[in-house]
Amino acid sequence: MPRGYFITFEGLDGSGKTTQLRRLAAALEAQGHKVVTLRQPGGTALGDRIRSILLDSKSEAAFGPIAPAAEMALMFADRAQSISEIILPALAAGSIVLCDRYTDSSEAYQGAGRQLGSERILAMHAAACDNLQPDLTILLLPSLEASLKRARRRNHRHSQQAQQQVADENRFEREPDDFYRRIYEKYEEIAAREPHRVTAIRNDASIDEIQACIQKIVAARLASPRS
After folding, report:
1. Alpha-carbon distance 47 to 200, whole Å?
2. Where are the chain's structural domains?
3. Residues 118, 27: contact at Cβ < 8 Å?
4. Quick check: bond before 65 cis, omega within 30?
5. Are 87 and 95 within 8 A, CB to CB?
6. Mean pLDDT within 35-40
7. Which of 224, 186, 222 is nearest to 31 (CA)?
8. Cα 183 to Cα 23: distance, rounded to the nearest angstrom
9. Are the C-beta atoms of residues 149 and 14 closer than 8 Å to each other?
């Protein structure tokens, strides 16, 4: 059986990547493809526990500040479990795997945002993930201002959830604009460094327009022979 195809979605919080992943999954399934979707962190029993620690804004009240290196290590623990439990079996079964965030997120958020550096992140990727690379990465990179505006709106909603004692995923979205500026610049750097793998969509087009663009990109990649 031919190996499946591994596609990741990347972008800042508020970039619309989760919506686009779901739309692409529905379109591919309608075409008869076997599709597996997941998010990182999360998607496995272990990963969901890690996600609740890393993203819930109340985690630091319970555990104290999470050190950047500990944050990085937890992200890769989640990723290694996801690769073993979901990604590799799905690829072996010939499925198209759509993953909401992967190692590019760690390079951007922990490497640049937390200022741990790319070299450290990429070394961890080689060690924990056996250097498994996506076949294609869709990077949604609307303007920084637009992304921050969307993230702040979501931040407000999550703050209301927290006030109601509902679990939220607001820990990263509380970070200052400089944190997100470093992430944005790192995503640009990754796209320039790996143009064959990473396709960046930088405009602020409508959801439908971006969906059409992504479907065209993916169709072309699936139709072309692997290098």
Report:
1. 27
2. 5-223
3. no
4. no
5. no
6. 97
7. 222
8. 25
9. yes
b/e map of 3-39 (b: 16 or more CB within 10 Å)?
ebbbbbbbbbbbbbbbebbebbbebbeeeeeebbbbb
Strand partners, 140: 11, 201
Closest alpha carbon to 101 in 157, 26, 37: 37
Q: How far apart are CA 137 and CA 3, in angstroms?
A: 17
Token output for 188? 């640009």
| Phi, psi values for residue 175, rounded to 5° | -70, 155
Ramachandran category for residue 16: left, alpha or beta (phi over 0 → left; psi -120 to 50 → alpha): left
Whole-number average pLDDT of the chain: 90
191 within 8 A of 141, measured Cβ to Cβ: yes
Q: Which CATH class is domain 5-223?
A: alpha beta
Q: How far apart are CA 197 and CA 187, in angstroms?
A: 13
- pLDDT at residue 163 is higher than 60: no
Query: Phi then psi for 169, rounded to 5 degrees?
Result: -125, 55
What is the rounded CA–CA span in Å between residue 41 and residue 196? 25
Q: Using DSSP bridges, classify how beta strands 96-100 and 5-11 pair: parallel, antiparallel or unpaired.
A: parallel
Distance between CA atoms of residues 47 and 141, nearest Å: 26
The number of residues making up the chain comes to: 227
Question: Under a CB-based contact definition with an 8 Å cutoff, are residues 124 and 72 in contact?
Answer: yes
Choice between 63 and 153, residue whose per-residue pLDDT is larger: 63
